[in-house]
Design brief:
Length: 191
């Protein structure tokens, strides 16, 4: 193997190809996460809203337990996807770490929920919007960018509402921010 130095054009080509490969790696199967979490979180928001609004259960937050199996499914899918990825770039790792950081931040909020109880859902929507917007920017996929913005609008609206209504806004925000872009991303993946 030779230690030949790359020309500027070869270096640029190599970087462009690596970024393109990373974007393909991220996009391939990326809809799975948006669709899985979109359905789970939308139904949890709706369930919480219905249980609380109509006083059907004294612990309406119980519906959020559906996120635990979703987390396990998501982790297994991610591990399998990682094994099948031939080339992993810095951008691939950055994308994954961004979502892990957001998950840790959200779990920290949930753990200390007593301190932010009245606006917990609004804050989580804010974090979801941040991750979705950044995903859209990294993939250069406008529906995810708009989805992130929709989640931010939902967060802002939720901050101004009573707690129970925040869950209804959350369900609508997740539908607009995760499910619609997730289905559009799936369509692109299958094309």
């Amino acid at each position: 193997m030779s230690d030949k130095e790359l020309t500027k054009e070869e270096s640029l080509d190599l970087i462009t190809n690596m970024i393109g490969q990373a974007k393909r790696n991220i996009a391939k199967g990326g809809s799975f996460y948006f669709l899985l979490w979109g359905w789970v979180v939308m139904f949890a928001n709706l369930g919480h809203y219905i249980l609380d609004k109509y006083d059907l259960h004294d612990q309406p937050y119980i519906v959020w337990l559906i996120t635990f199996p979703a987390g396990i499914v998501s982790a297994i899918y991610g591990a399998r996807q990682g094994k099948n990825t031939v080339v992993r770039s810095h951008l691939d790792r950055l994308y994954g770490l961004m979502w892990i950081a957001i998950a840790v931040a959200v779990m920290t909020l949930i753990f200390f929920t007593g301190n932010v109880e009245t606006n917990l859902n609004a804050i989580i929507l804010l974090f979801a919007g941040l991750g979705t917007l950044n995903s859209g920017l990294m993939l250069r996929f406008k529906p995810l960018i708009l989805g992130g913005l929709a989640l931010w609008v939902s967060s802002i609206l939720a901050f101004s509402l009573p707690v129970t209504e925040q869950y209804l806004v959350g369900a609508i925000g997740i539908f607009a921010g995760y499910l619609i872009p997730g289905f559009l991303l799936k369509k692109v993946e299958n094309a």
